[in-house]
Amino acid sequence: MALEQVTTVVDIAALAKLGAGLAIGFGAIGGGLGLGVATKGLMDAVARQPEIAGKAFGFFIIGAGLAEATALYALVIAFKLIG
Predict the structure, then answer these.
(1) Helices (H), ranges, 1-83
(2) Cα separation of 3 and 48, whole Å?
């Protein structure tokens, strides 16, 4: 009976580590895609109207920060899963 409980705890720990890896992986994908879309939008806007480059860059920085925040949230969740 005790051996089954130990095996179960080890299995749960292994699954938690797998979940942590998946969480940070999907979080990094989300952050990367968000940053790519934001960069594309900035480049399109500046290509059409070069005079708004300064103002558009400020909005880009805010959007990039929000996109990177998703990856940081995934990292926090991954650390919580590992324990």
Answers:
(1) 2-48, 53-82
(2) 68
Comparing CA positions, the residue from 5, 81, 3 lying closest to residue 27 is: 81
Chain-centre distance of CA 42, in angstroms?
Answer: 21
Write the CATH number for 57: 1.20.20.10
Structural domain contains residue 76:
yes
Query: Is residue 69 in a domain?
Result: yes
Identity of residue 34: G
pLDDT per position as a tens digit, 40-63: 999 999 999 999 999 999 999 998
Whole-model pTM: value is 0.69
Measure CA of the first residue to CA of the last residue in the chain; give whole Å: 25
